[in-house]
Amino acid sequence: MIRGLYTSASGMLKGQKKMDIVSNNLANSSTTGYKKDIAISQSFKEILTKRMNDTKNGQPNNADIGKMSLGSDIIQVFTDYSQGTLVKTDSDTDVGIKNSTSAFFAVNVPYQGEDTEMYTRHGSLTINNDGYLVTEEDYEVLGLDGPIYLGTDNFMIQEDGSIYADNQYIDTLKVVEFENTDELIKYGQNLVIAEDDAKTKTFSGQIVQGFIEGSNVNTVEEMVEMINIMRSYEANQKVVKAYDDTLEKVINEVGKV
Question: Fewer beta carbons below 10 Å: N end or C end of the chain?
Fold first, then answer.
């Protein structure tokens, strides 16, 4: 009986974790360049069950009954880096990446007292008071020669990321494309960091100016998933309540007999 209680409780805990992930996806459905997370579940290892203290025809009968699992849990949160929809803004400081799901803009982020290179698909950029191209969070956007200084609003970005202002070459956006996105870790603020041994490759996509990439969250799918999680949680909740009622009778009524 207690095994069933634990199994239902583990299902409820898994539902809570999945609900947090789905809720975060929905909250960021309109965040530029956001990539949704997917919870991956796995059942606990099956265990062999046996009869205990059982007899048959006066002989011990502690035979195997079969195998059973005590529930499941989330073993990994997988990030889906599929392409989001490119939305036209006609703003020169808005840039998007197309035809590549593993490429990112490189930015300078203060981390533990020093500037650290991190990566983002959030291409809604601006020019700060010092004339540098920065993100909405004021992180410097990196080019091949370091932080990109423009000093003017009149500039053009080519498909390969090269930037021209007043018909003069300024720099090229540093766009890093990774061989395996499993080697990326979400940092927060729509940024990812790469593991030390993460491998990169030549950028195979194109940069489009005047566009931003929307999130790849499908709100309808996430709402359906939320409903399924709620139904599963409620079912496990009813099982826990049934076990609780049974245990109450065992303690309060059977004990009196």
Answer: C
Indicate the pTM of the whole model.
Answer: 0.80
Nearest to 140 by CA among 90, 177, 174, 103: 174
Cross-strand bridge partners of residue 143: 146, 173
What are the pLDDT digits (tens) for 14-43?
Answer: 899 999 999 999 999 999 999 999 998 877
